[in-house]
């Protein structure tokens, strides 16, 4: 009896694993070092978009996570202002997705932004569609010094439009 249950449980776990792999959310993580007084970082890269499956026409970005870490001693009176924007919009207020202003004197900060954004892979400006802009304050250092490290992670998946011709408009019963 136990061996039948084990085989059945292993089989259902295998099926569940294959379902999860099909619907897997992809993650891209990069780290950057801030060396300018104002930095703009493109969050989508050509490399990650080239890996896309050709059967899909869109990507859905669900979450952007950002971690900003000072690479100086703790206790300095320093702060950071960071915004996530979609600069395809020419009016700044329309392009603003999220922002944070925080002290870095006690250590790193992290923030999550649940974006819920769908982008067409045919958009000519897709690489410009999501940027992180950072402005540190009170870092008086020699030119070329790197006061801050930035790590970000984007959670997204390939999708086809919900209005595709293969979509069923009636629920299955």
Summarize the structure in words.
- The protein is built from three helices and eight strands; from the N terminus they run H-E-E-H-E-E-H-E-E-E-E.
- It is of the alpha+beta class.
- The chain has one domain (26-159): Jelly Rolls (Sandwich), CATH 2.60.120.
- The strands form two sheets. It has a four-stranded antiparallel beta sheet with strand order 1-8-3-6, with no helix packed on it. It has a four-stranded antiparallel beta sheet with strand order 2-7-4-5.
- It is elongated.
- The two termini are 34 Å apart.
- It holds the Pfam family MP.
Structural features:
173 residues, alpha+beta, Jelly Rolls, four-stranded antiparallel sheet, elongated, disordered N terminus, Viral_movement, Caulimoviridae_Movement
CATH topology: Jelly Rolls
User: Can you say what the CATH homologous superfamily is?
Assistant: Cucumovirus coat protein, subunit A
Count the DSSP helices. Answer: 3
From the helix content, strand content and strand pairing, which structural class follows?
alpha+beta
What are the secondary-structure elements, in order, as H or E?
HEEHEEHEEEE
Strand content: 35-45%
Number of strands: 8
Q: Class, according to the CATH hierarchy?
A: Mainly Beta
- Unreliable parts: 1-24
Please tell me the total number of domains.
1
Radius of gyration: 21 Å
Mean pLDDT: 78
Largest sheet: 4 strands, antiparallel
Tell me the distance between the termini. Answer: 34 Å
CATH architecture: Sandwich
Helical coverage, percent range: 10-25%
Globally, the shape reads elongated
* Spatial order of strands in the largest sheet: 1-8-3-6
């Amino acid at each position: 009896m136990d061996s039948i249950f084990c085989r059945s449980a292993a089989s259902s776990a295998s099926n569940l694993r294959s379902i999860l792999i099909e619907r897997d959310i992809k993650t891209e993580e990069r780290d950057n070092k801030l060396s300018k007084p104002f930095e703009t970082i493109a969050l989508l890269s050509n490399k990650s978009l080239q890996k896309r499956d050709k059967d899909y026409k869109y990507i859905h970005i669900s979450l952007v996570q950002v971690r900003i870490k000072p690479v100086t001693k703790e206790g300095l009176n320093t702060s950071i202002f960071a915004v996530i924007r979609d600069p395809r919009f020419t009016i700044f207020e329309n392009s603003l997705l999220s922002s944070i202003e925080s002290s870095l004197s006690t250590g790193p900060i992290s923030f999550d932004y649940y974006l819920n954004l769908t982008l067409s892979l045919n958009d000519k400006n897709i690489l410009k569609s999501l940027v992180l802009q950072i402005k540190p304050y009170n870092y008086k250092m020699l030119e070329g010094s790197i006061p801050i490290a930035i790590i970000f992670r984007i959670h997204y998946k390939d999708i086809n439009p919900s209005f595709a011709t293969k979509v069923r408009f009636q629920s299955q019963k």
